[in-house]
């Protein structure tokens, strides 16, 4: 996932408190100012008591998930906006509304605790305003909510540009995508096939009293019925299992690595797909990641699973800086994208992403596709993947690539999952199921033997 044009990187100070509501308001304010949850959450986790960490995260992620809706309600409740110096109070009001409208917390307790958080934010003078707004919402909830129904932004809690793009691309399916984006994502595991079969690990979970079910689309996926601390799962520390969405697990199955192959995982962090490829076959894997801060996660995942790979911190789109000239048998290109298929896991995307980001991402994707294609052996295969649901980044991107490259053949993915596109296969985020993802499998052959974009029979 590429940072949006709105995302900032400067530092910010937390309020001197461990009150989860006050911290959630401070965190939400930073997202409103362009910081990502990936930047904000680590700081908040260190500031809050361990027993309150889950509650804090739900407050913040839920407030981001329904921001467009809750922000509209907050504006209706306020007779005038808060001063810029007290903008955190607007964020606190949204956090309070989420407790009443999203968490369904006990009303009196939620109002009282939110009002008390004003003191922790050093905004005690606003207690009466926050109290009045929240109590007015409880009195007028039905009429306030009804007034939002005709506006697609407030009705779906998505930015207008994204609602329009999804509606244009998918028609009636757009409503399904929008609804799924506002649900909590399930916890999905990938069983390390070098250690256990899926059936064996399901038995271990049953013995541990953990309810789980097998995934529908991949061979090693397991869904937990309830979230948990994954480090407490049987054998987790020893590499028996990893957390990975079922849609992401399709990458290794589609690329189908074979023993002895030389494989590139471009844009590899945090390393889940690299590890899955290495679990699948004895291969020579090179994992390339541009962002230095994300490289340690790759090493950590490899170490926990007892796997090895060549890890390179550099730009996969500029192979002249790191490639040794030996062509690859296969390439996994999990391209930088809008991440519109994983909004339920990263709800701040709806606040940070901008329409102009899509055009910029298309250019980046085309460049990295072209540069990585040159690294592939004749007869080699490239799997293009994104966690996007936008055709501009997916089927249209692959269609344009096929028009540029006479030596590229698109392999038909006739699978019992996803939506068949003009080029590739699209998954939508699914309730209690996989995230939104796109895949297209390309094979390289002699340029003079292939009609551009031709599919084999």
UniProtKB/TrEMBL annotation:
GO cellular component, as recorded: cytosol
Main localization of the protein described in the UniProt heading: cytoplasm
UniProt keyword list: Cytoplasm, Methyltransferase, RNA-binding, rRNA processing, S-adenosyl-L-methionine, Transferase
Endoplasmic reticulum as UniProt keyword: no
Provenance organism: Parathalassolituus penaei
Name listed for the protein in its UniProt record: 16S rRNA (cytosine(967)-C(5))-methyltransferase
Gene3D superfamilies membership: NusB-like, Sun protein, domain 3, Vaccinia Virus protein VP39
Gene this chain is encoded by: rsmB
Active site: 387 (nucleophile)
GO BP terms: regulation of DNA-templated transcription; rRNA base methylation
Location in the cell: Cytoplasm
Protein family: Belongs to the class I-like SAM-binding methyltransferase superfamily. RsmB/NOP family.
């Amino acid at each position: 996932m590429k940072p949006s044009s709105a995302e900032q990187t400067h530092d910010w100070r937390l309020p001197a408190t461990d009150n989860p509501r006050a911290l959630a308001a401070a965190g939400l304010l930073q997202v409103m100012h362009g910081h990502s949850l990936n930047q904000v959450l680590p700081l908040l986790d260190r500031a809050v008591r361990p027993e309150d960490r889950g509650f804090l995260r739900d407050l913040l992620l839920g407030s981001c998930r329904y921001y467009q809706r809750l922000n509209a309600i907050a504006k209706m409740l306020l007779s005038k906006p808060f001063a810029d110096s007290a903008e955190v109070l607007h964020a606190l009001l949204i956090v309070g509304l989420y407790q009443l409208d999203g968490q369904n917390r006990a009303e009196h307790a939620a109002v009282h605790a939110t009002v008390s958080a004003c003191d922790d934010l050093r905004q005690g003078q606003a207690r009466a305003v926050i109290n009045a707004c929240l109590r007015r919402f409880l009195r007028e909830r039905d009429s306030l909510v009804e007034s939002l129904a005709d506006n697609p932004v407030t009705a779906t809690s998505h930015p207008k540009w994204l609602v329009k793009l999804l509606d244009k691309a998918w028609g009636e399916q757009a409503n399904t995508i929008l609804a799924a984006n506002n649900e909590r994502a399930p916890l999905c595991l990938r069983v390390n096939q070098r250690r256990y079969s899926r059936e064996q690990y399901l038995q271990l979970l049953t013995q541990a009293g953990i309810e789980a079910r097998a995934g529908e689309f991949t061979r090693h996926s397991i869904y937990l019925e309830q979230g948990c601390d994954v480090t407490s799962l049987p054998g987790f520390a020893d590499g028996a299992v990893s957390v990975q969405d079922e849609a992401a697990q399709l990458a290794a199955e589609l690329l189908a690595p074979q023993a002895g192959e030389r494989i590139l995982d471009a844009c590899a962090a945090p390393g889940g797909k690299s590890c899955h490829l290495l679990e699948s076959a004895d291969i020579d894997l090179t994992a390339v990641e541009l962002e230095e801060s994300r490289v340690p996660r790759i090493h950590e995942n490899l170490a926990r699973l007892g796997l090895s790979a060549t890890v390179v911190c550099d730009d996969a789109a500029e192979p002249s800086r790191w490639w040794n000239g030996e062509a690859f048998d296969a390439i996994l290109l999990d391209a930088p994208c809008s991440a519109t298929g994983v909004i339920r896991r990263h709800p701040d995307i709806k606040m940070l992403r901008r329409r102009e980001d899509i055009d910029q991402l298309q250019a980046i994707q085309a460049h990295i596709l072209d540069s990585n294609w040159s690294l592939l052996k004749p007869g080699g295969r490239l799997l293009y993947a994104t966690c996007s649901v936008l055709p501009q980044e997916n089927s249209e991107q692959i269609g344009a690539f096929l028009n540029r490259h006479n030596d590229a053949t698109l392999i038909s993915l006739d699978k019992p999952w996803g939506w068949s596109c003009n080029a590739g296969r699209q998954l939508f985020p699914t309730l209690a199921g996989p995230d939104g993802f796109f895949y297209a499998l390309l094979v390289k052959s002699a340029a003079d033997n292939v009609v551009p974009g031709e599919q084999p029979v």
